[in-house]
Amino acid sequence: MKMNRNKQIPNVVIYGALYAVIFGVSTWLLAFHEDSPNNWILYVAMIVAVLTGLVKLALHSRKRHQQSV
After folding, report:
1. Coil, strand or helix: which one is 37?
2. How many beta carbons lie within 10 A of that of residue 52, not counting itself?
């Protein structure tokens, strides 16, 4: 019996973990370091994470739609 050990992790899991880390660190720093002069960097990181996720999902959905047509 042959076992296939080459399993691929779904993109949703990878990007979900990445966004969770970025949001988790950003939220923690914003909550506990309110007077930090670097807060604008955290807001930019959170916005970039959301936009990247939306673009990634849109491109993936578009690719899947084109393959089905």
Report:
1. coil
2. 14
